[in-house]
Amino acid sequence: MRKNIENNLMTFIIEKDLIAPNVKKMKEVLNDALNEVDEIDEVVIDMDGIENIDSVGVSFVVSLYKNISNEGLEFRIVNASSDIVQLFKLMRLDEFFIIEE
Amino acid sequence: MSHNVVVADDGKMNRFIIKKILNDNMDEVTIFEAVNGVEVFEILRNNDIDLIILDLIMPVKNGFETLKELKANSELQDIPVIVSSTITEISSVEKTLGGGAIDYFAKPFSKEDIEIILPLKVINAIKYYEQKKTIKKLNEAIEEEMKTANLFQNLMLPKTNQFSDFDLFIKYRPCMGIGGDFFDCVENEEGFWFMIADVTGHGIAAGMISSMVKVMFRNGVNDKEVRSPAEMLGNMNHNVFNYFYTSATDTSVVFTGFVGLIKDGELFYSSAGQPFPVLYHKRKKLVLSLKQTGMNIGFFDGIKYIDESVNMDNGDTLLVYTDGLFSSGKSSDFSSWPEVESFSRENSELLEENPHEFLENIFWHFLSKHKKNDSDYTDDVAIMLIKSK
Question: Whole-model pTM?
């Protein structure tokens, strides 16, 4: 996972599938990164490298959204595959945050 | 803490020196003396021994034979053995250490051996044995707890032959003896209620939550205000926030679920993130996925779920399952959901004629895919077939 900060926007580029064996490590990295920064308005998750997601991965995204929105920051997902967009829409997660293909 | 040590050596002077080293360096030690391997086993029969210091060359039964016999005995094999010998060639050292001795020292003893090396080797060996015993005890206690928890979990599963209008076929494999997958069925005057759920994670914590899911499901069935599967899921979701006091940012109590109510030839259903169930229509020879889902339970309070319905005639069969079916440690994904439908279509004849065999086959189909990736199921797997009589 790579991190990029530019103009009060923090982008996380996720390079591994969002499935149970990968999520634990991602959580640690993301939490550490979020604790480090102050002047951020929006957090973007770039899912370009993700083909697969499971229920642990979906829980991870929702947990992330809750933490970030609780801090008063915007949250957005970009470059998600059409399958993942479809799943998130089926779960009606698009009612809470923006999901872009 | 007192320790019992056996000093096995046919040389009186050697035993004396070792005893002195032990007495000088250990707070409380009881020393048992043996002059051959036979006497070692006599001592072991009547005492709990923490360490054996074993000479290799002894009459009657030598150290090599004694070590071999000790390591072949499941009750004695964990006791650490330090071998002492005048034989210093490397092949003997290799033979004893390879045969399970924890350490080795050569005789005659040097000043450093007596003052430093031997005391440290003894203390380290005893510490190692203490830790090993503690771990073994803990493992036994955990195993016992798991067995009891597994028994309770099995008692929670529905009995397959208890329903008048439906046959039930179940395949359940928790990956740690107890799991977070859950299903239950209730037949009452309203119809046939059922639920399958998959608590995030596995093991004891997930098992505890799945017990709670069962209680919520049964309460929902008996609640006259709950009129549909979607209302059932909505109530459960709200109750998760009530019962578990989860904070606004927490997602520690999360599960997917699918609730159905079959009445008068119609299946009413609602889903909370569950992989799409597959329905087999016997008369039309048609296999279709119920492609509707909502948000996982425990994500956000106040969520409304959606009811849908589909015709389910006599002889039709519904397949519900958890996503553990796809999880192998290397891949576990939403993209595998359609494969359950295609497998069911290809095996629809078996699904109709022999549901038991169908369940086994679908389980082994996905397992063999995992095996190709040198993996195995790493999540709980639950598959259930409901066949309308």
Answer: 0.76
User: Where are the strands (E) in A47-97, listed by range?
Assistant: 74-78
Both tokens of B224, joined, read: 């006259």
Q: State pLDDT tens for residues B90-121.
A: 777 788 888 888 888 887 878 888 888 888 88
Question: pLDDT digit string (tens) for B270-329?
Answer: 999 888 999 999 999 999 999 888 899 998 888 999 999 999 999 999 999 987 776 655
Cβ–Cβ of B333/A52 closer than 8 Å? yes
User: Which chain B residue has its CA at the smallest distance from A66's CA?
Assistant: B249
Cβ(B332)–Cβ(A20) below 8 Å: yes
Residue A52's closest chain B neighbor by CA?
Answer: B333
For chain B, residues classed under CATH 3.40.50.2300 are: 2-141
Token pair of A81, please? 């595959």
CATH code linked to domain B2-141: 3.40.50.2300
Q: In angstroms, rounded to a whole number, what is the distance separating the alpha carbons of residues B240 and B233? A: 11
Collapsed DSSP state (helix, strand, coil) of residue B184: strand
- Look at residue B372 and give its three-state secondary structure: helix
Phi-psi region of B216 (alpha: psi -120 to 50; beta: other; left: phi over 0): alpha
The CATH number of domain B157-388 is 3.60.40.10: yes
Strand order in the sheet with B51-55: B28-34, B2-8, B51-55, B81-85, B103-106
Q: How many domains does chain A have?
A: 1
Cβ contacts of B332 on chain A, cutoff 8 Å:
19-21, 52, 54, 56
Of B200, B293, B300, the CB nearest to A90: B293
Q: Degrees (nearest 5) of the Cα angle B186, B253, B268?
A: 35
- Asked if this assembly's ipTM is beyond 0.95, the reply is no
Cβ burial of A48 (10 Å; 0-12, 13-18, 19+) is exposed
Within chain B, all domains assigned CATH 3.60.40.10 are found at 157-388
Question: B156 CA to chain A: closest CA distance, Å?
Answer: 24
Distances (CA, A) of B257 to A79, B337, B366: 28, 15, 21
Task: Estimate the share of chain A in helix, then strand, then coil, as percent rounded to the nearest 5.
Answer: 45, 25, 30
Domain that holds residue A50: 2-99
Collapsing DSSP to helix, strand or coil, A79 comes out as coil
